[in-house]
Prior knowledge:
By secondary structure, this protein is α+β, with helices and mostly antiparallel strands. The chain has helices spanning 2-19, 23-33, 39-50, 56-96, 114-128, 142-145, 178-187, 227-242, 295-300, 317-325, 338-341, and strands spanning 132-133, 139-141, 165-166, 170-172, 191-200, 212-222, 248-252, 258-267, 284-293, 309-316.
Amino acid sequence: MLESKLTGLQEQAAAALDQAPDAEALEAIRVDILGRKGQLPTLTTQIGKSMGKLPPEERASLGKLMNAVKQDLESRYEARKAAFERAALDLRLNAEWLDLTLPAPGTRPGTLHPLTQIQRELEEYFNSLGFAILDGPEVEDEWHNFDALNIPATHPARDAQDTFFVEGGLLLRTHTSPVQVRAMEKFGAPLRIVAPGRVFRNEEVDASHEHTFYQLEGMMIDKDVSIGHMLYFLKGLLQSIFHREVTVRLRPGFFPFVEPGFELDIQCLLCGGSGCPVCKQSGWVEQLGCGLVHPNVLRAGGIDPEQWNGFAFGLGVTRLVMMRYGIDDIRHLAAGDLRFLRQF
Ligand code: DAH
C-alpha cells in the first residue's frame, strides 16, 4: 500500500520533471515534490512513522525503494535543469556571437589631399631622374629668401605689402627658391634637387589667390647645361602630371635669379589651343617660371660660375592641382570640407 503510493508518486513526478516546459516550471515542480515540505518528504515521513510495524525484511526493501525513488527524481531534476541551462547558454552565445576576423564596420578609409597626391607624383618623377627631394625652413632669413637670389633691397617683393615679416629679421618665405641657395651651400656642384613646400604672401584672398600655397622648386647644376636640358625635364614633368602629350612654349620673363628668364606656358588642355574661358581665349596657360641660374646666385651659393652653370624653375603646385582637376576656387583646397576632399 505504502509502496504503491511511493511508486505512484515517482511515476507522476518523473513525468512532470521530464516534461517541465521551462526552468521556472521545473523549479516549481522541484519545490512541490522534492522541497522540504514537498510531496516526497511528506510521504517519506509518513512511511517512516509506520515502518516500525513492518517485518524487518519488508522494512529494508521499503527503505531501499525510498532511497531509489529520491535518487531517481533528483537525478531527473538535475538532468532537466542542465538541459535548460545549456539551451540558455546556446541562445546567449548565438546572440552575442562575433566574428573577430571580419573587417571593422563604420571606419571609412581616408584619402590623400589632392595637393599631397600631386606633390608625391612630382617627387616620384624627379626622383626617377636622379633629383634629391629637399625640405627648407618656412621661416626664412632675408639672405636666403632675397639677397642670395639676386633680389635687391629695392625690389617690390621685399615690401611689407607683399611679405609677412616676423620678429628677429626673419620672414615667412615667399617662394621655395631659398632652398636652391641652401642646397648649393650644403652640397655644392654638381647638383640636382627639387624642393616642394608651402609659401606665404601677404595677399588679399579670392578665388585665385591665397596667403598660403604650394610650390615646387627645382635646380640642376652641371657642366654646359642648356635651355634644351631644362625643356626636356619641364616638358616631362607636365606630361607625367597630365598623363598626355603637351605642347609648351617659352616667353621671356623677368626673375632676378635667372638670366635668361622665362615663363613656360602649356597649350590649353581643354580647347587644344583654339581658345576657351580657361585659357582666356589665348590658347595658352602659364605654368611656371624658369631660366638659367644667374651667376650672382651661383656665387652666393659658393659655386664658381666659370666652371658650372645650371637651370632652375619654380612651379605653382596649387595652380597645377587646380588645372588638373578643374577646381575653380583655390579656397576649396584649404577649407577641410570632406564633401570636397572625398572626391579625390
Ligand atoms: N620664385 C618664383 C616665384 O615664386 C618662381 C621661379 C621663377 C622660380 C623662376 C625659379 C625660377 O627657380 O627660375 O614666382
